[in-house]
Amino acid sequence: MAGRIAHTYIRKDTKRPLTDEDIYHMLMLHKYQRVSLSKIATRFGLSVTQVRNIIGRRSGGSCCG
């Protein structure tokens, strides 16, 4: 699709990009264990806004796909 850019998120603690396993782990923590976004952000070395964007995009939380 035009206009879509794959965004890579860099962890602040390890200076490495997030892997698919990291994103899957974030989704499972938030969805099933009800861990807050701020705790997930601290654990993965990201900002709360970045975590919110990742979880929203991966879990189907956006209104337009």
Write a structural description.
- The protein is mainly α and 65 residues long.
- The protein has a domain of 39 residues.
- Helix content is 48%, strand content 0%.
- The chain contains three helices and no strands.
- It is globular and about 25 Å long.
- The termini are close together.
- The relative contact order is 0.16.
- The mean pLDDT is 83.
Map the helices and strands:
Blueprint: H1 20-31, H2 37-44, H3 48-58
Helix pairs in contact: 1-3, 2-3
Q: How is this structure best summarized?
A:
This protein has 65 residues and is mainly alpha-helical. The protein has helices at 20-31, 37-44, 48-58.
Descriptive tags:
65 residues; 3 helices; mainly alpha
Shape: globular
Rg over C-alpha atoms, rounded to the nearest angstrom: 12 Å
What class would the helix/strand composition place it in? mainly alpha
The percentage helix is: 40-55%
Spell out the helices and strands N to C: HHH
